[in-house]
Amino acid sequence: MKTQPSIASFAAVLAVVLGCASVQAEPLKIRLAWVASPPELPPVLFAKEGLAKHLGQTYTIEPLHFEGTSPMITGFAAGEVDIGPIAYASFATAVQNAGMSDLKIIADEFRDGVDGYYSSEYMVLKDGGINSVDDLKGKVLATNALGTAAYIGMTAILVKHHLVERKDYTVIEVPFPNMTAMLLEKKADLVGPPPVFANNPDFRAKTRILYTQKDSMGPTQMTFFAARAPFLEKNRAAVLDFMEDELRAVRWYVDPANEQEALAIVSRFTKIPAERLQGLVFTKRDYYRDPTGVPDLDMLQHNLDTQRALGLLKDPVDVKKYADLSFIEEAGKRLK
């Protein structure tokens, strides 16, 4: 009579232990944010089979699309985003206005205006009568979302020319894919579309570059992957596996030997013919991606200091206080 309860108790304990082990073995779901691809890679990151050695084992990916990095910050604040490529401007907003002191910079995504590489272009119609920044007075400017890197790059140069938003010009929000049509239809006077849209031959023939992000802000650590500290601490092993796979994927995409296959992947996702992407993606006509995956914190600090000097940022931000590069550095060691 005493044996049966003991066996039953043991079986119950064993079931609990095995159940816990099963839960612990479940891959971590990483909700990965993105805005525009290309230049961002999250939606196509692991489209090439074999790049993600740990996908499905220690983690899975759920890509989440946002119209800009400013709305992405709301996702972070609500606990709906785990990792995302945020811009320097949105990062400062998250830290100062949203109170996210636990937000950590963990890896590079891409940089604007690095010598020899692409810088975001702010474009006007050739026959629109706008020949200088001062000519934007009284005009309508289109950005993807207020507070983003594209918005700061667009407006910082106007601040230098003593033009005041809402008094001297108007800014409207327009999704990136719709910007070229807005300009051609004269519903906006200046737009800043990503290069895959800006380099449409029909659009290019009717427009010209008024200035670039580099003219406005200098070389820019445009976007970088970030996550909140509690998520990183709780899931360190899985995040490290993800960063290893992410770095391997980036190196594959930027390798000239893989250009045609990489373009085919991007073409399938964007529905843009591969021949139109030729020479524009993963080349020097694209943004710079560091092969080590380590962001340039000094460049980022300069960007935020410039933003503050222009009156576009309330208080100083010590970038290194918010950086945890241990994940990307360890990922790099794994791939050597």
What's the topology here?
Elements: H1 3-25, E1 28-34, E2 59-65, H2 69-77, E3 83-87, H3 88-96, E4 103-112, E5 121-125, E6 140-143, H4 149-160, E7 170-173, H5 179-184, H6 195-198, H7 201-206, E8 207-212, H8 213-217, E9 220-228, H9 229-234, H10 236-254, H11 259-270, H12 274-277, H13 297-309, H14 326-334
Parallel strand pairs: 1-2, 6-7
Antiparallel strand pairs: 3-9, 4-9, 5-8
Helix pairs in contact: 2-3, 10-14
Structure, described:
There is one protein chain. By secondary structure, the protein is of the alpha/beta class. The chain folds into 2 domains: 27-114 and 220-334, Periplasmic binding protein-like II (D-Maltodextrin-Binding Protein, domain 2, 3-Layer(aba) Sandwich), CATH 3.40.190; 121-217, Periplasmic binding protein-like II (D-Maltodextrin-Binding Protein, domain 2, 3-Layer(aba) Sandwich). The protein is 41% helix and 17% strand. It contains 14 helices and 9 strands. It has helices spanning 3-25, 69-77, 88-96, 149-160, 179-184, 195-198, 201-206, 213-217, 229-234, 236-254, 259-270, 274-277, 297-309, 326-334; strands at 28-34, 59-65, 83-87, 103-112, 121-125, 140-143, 170-173, 207-212, 220-228. It has a 3-stranded antiparallel β-sheet. Strands 1-2 form a two-stranded parallel sheet. It has a two-stranded antiparallel ribbon with strand order 5-8. Strand 6, helix 4 (149-160) and strand 7 (170-173) form a beta-alpha-beta unit. The radius of gyration is 23 Å and the shape is globular. The mean pLDDT is 92.
